[in-house]
C-alpha cells in the first residue's frame, strides 16, 4: 500500500474555517441565540403545514429547476424566469458565482470586514482575495474598491447592508461606483438583509440590475423569511450570468421542502411585513439604548448591531453568554449582536450598560 495521501488542491491549504454562530446551550444559562442573524419567530402561517405535506414525498428527488418557486419569484420581482437562479442558501449561490467567474490568477474584491464566507469561497475557487478596508465609519469604501479593480478582477462583492457592521451604501455612491467598474467585471450586490432596510436612499439592487448587465443581486429566505435551516436563496442576474449559475448548481441542491416552504413564505407576506416591522422597531430601540449608554454604534439597516469593543470583545461575549444570550464575537474587533426576542435584547443591553460603566 502506498504511503502517500491523495493529492489535494494546493489552494485549500490555510483556508479559514467558517465559524457558525454559537448555539444557545440547551439547559445552560444562555437561552437566547443572537449569534447568527436568524429570525426569532416561528414559521410564517401555513409554512409548517406545507413543509409537513412536502415531507411525505422525500423519497423523491425535488424539482431540479425549482420551477414553481422560480415562477413565483419571477412574478414578484417582475423579472424573466431566465434571470433567476436558485441555490442552497445565498452562500451556495455566491459559491456558484465564483465557480462561474473566477479561478487561479483572477482577483475577487470585497470590503473587509464583511461576510466571512467571501474569503473562504474565494480561496476555494483558486482566485485571490483583494480586501478593501471599510471606512473609519465602518462603511464600504467604494472609491477605494473601484480603485482596486485591475484587469485580473473578475468579481466584486458589495454586501449591502454589510455583515457584520449593518452599514449600507446609498444609491448615488453605488451608481458612481458601478459607473467606474468595467462592464466585464461582475458586481454582486449581496442583499441578504434587504427586507430590514428602512433608509429610502439605500437602493433596491433589483432596480439597479435592470439597467446593468454586469450586476447580480443575491437574496435569501434565511433571514427575514425565517427559513435558515432549509437552505434556499437565489440570484437575479441577466441571462449569461443566470445561465452560468444554473450550470454550476449542485444538482437537486434545493430540497422540495425548501422550495415549497419558500413559496408558502412568499404568500404569507402580510404577516412577514408585520414581523419585520417589529424587528426593525426592536433594532431601533436597541440602537438608541446603546447610544444613550454612550456607545458609538454605526447606523444599521440590518437585523443586527455592531459594537466595536477591540480588546474587550471576548470578555464581552463571555459576559453575554453568562447572562443568557450568545452573541458573535470577532476577537480583537467587536461583537455582532442579532436583534432577537425583546428579553434577549434586554439581556444584551444590560451587559452593554455594565461594560460601559467599567470603561
Ligand atoms: C451577507 C450575507 N450573505 C449571505 C448569507 C448567507 O445566507 P444563506 O446562505 O443562509 O442564504 C449571509 C448569512 O449570514 C450573510 O450575512
UniProtKB/TrEMBL annotation:
Lineage: Bacteria, Bacillati, Actinomycetota, Actinomycetes, Kitasatosporales
GO terms, molecular function: histidinol-phosphate transaminase activity
Region span, Disordered: 1-31
Record has Transferase as a keyword: yes
Domain of life: Bacteria
Quaternary structure annotation from Swiss-Prot or TrEMBL: Homodimer.
Compositional bias annotation for Basic and acidic residues: 1-12
Required cofactor names: pyridoxal 5'-phosphate
Entry protein name: Aromatic amino acid aminotransferase
Species this chain originates from: Streptomyces pimonensis
Classification via Pfam families: Aminotran_1_2 (PF00155)
Annotated Low complexity bias: 18-31
